[in-house]
Amino acid sequence: MSYTHLMRHQNVVDDCQRVSCNRGPGSALSGRCVISRDIVLGCRMEMSDPDMPYMLEPTWSVYLRSQAKDGQDLAPFVRRVSFRMSPKLPLRLHVADAAPFEISEVLGTDFPLEVQVQYMDPRMTATTYVFRPRAVREGHSGMCEEMHDKMIFVNPSPAMRLSLAPAQGPGVGQAAPKALASASPLASATASATSSPDQALKERKGKAVCEEVGDAPHRSEPQLNRDRER
């Protein structure tokens, strides 16, 4: 994905800052490297306590997770996620310092939420997202809603690039040993099949020599002398 195509996501006027830049010295001298990761911001309605009155406002849980199908987690490169409630309530701030990055007991009046993501590498700038779920804003009866977005990293450090790499499957590193193990019996069988005819021929010759030596009659010296005179 090109840098221009990624920057189109930043140009959307929705109060979001999707691009994280490396503020370290000399980061721009090694060329431009852009990496993006797909994320999901979502909310789901929490089950109400049956002992509480029905007239109370329902609460929501809000989460941030990866959209990758390979199950890659955000924990290797995300250090902290801050959920700031509506500007009408400036003191309402929830922080998730570890995965899963999720908070609970969020009221409908707390939306929209400003979600700020800080990364393991302190040289990378934070990214922010504004979450306005339609189900909460318009009073729909939906139980959950998700918003798909992106994290864009410009010139991340080598350690950050390694943490952003997709996770390998459990069988990636085991293919070569299995192949070698399966090839060993085949090689031994081929070697035995190649050497077995020669070995059998040698065994037959040796057996024939033994039979000739063993079948020769035992003659005494007088008998040998009479045979020579004849």
Write the layout of secondary structure elements.
Elements: H1 3-10, E1 19-21, E2 34-45, E3 59-66, E4 78-84, E5 93-96, E6 101-107, E7 113-119, E8 127-131, H2 134-137, E9 144-154, H3 158-164, H4 175-215, H5 221-229
Written description of the protein model:
This protein is α+β, with helices and mostly antiparallel strands. It contains 5 helices and 9 strands; from the N terminus they run H-E-E-E-E-E-E-E-E-H-E-H-H-H. Strands 1-9-2-3-6 form a 5-stranded mixed β-sheet, covered by helices on one side. It has a 4-stranded antiparallel β-sheet with strand order 5-4-7-8, with no helix packed on it. Helix content is 30%, strand content 28%. The model is unreliable at 172-187 and 208-218 (pLDDT under 50). The protein starts with a helix and ends with a helix.
> What ranges have pLDDT less than 50 throughout 5 or more consecutive residues?
172-187, 208-218
Distance between the termini: 105 Å
> Mind describing the biggest β-sheet?
5 strands, mixed
Radius of gyration in whole Å, from Cα? Answer: 38 Å
Instruction: Tell me the overall shape.
Output: flat
Structural class estimated from helices and strands: alpha+beta
- In the sheet with the most strands, the strands line up as 1-9-2-3-6
Total strands: the figure is 9
In round numbers, the mean pLDDT is 74
Portion of residues within helices: 25-40%
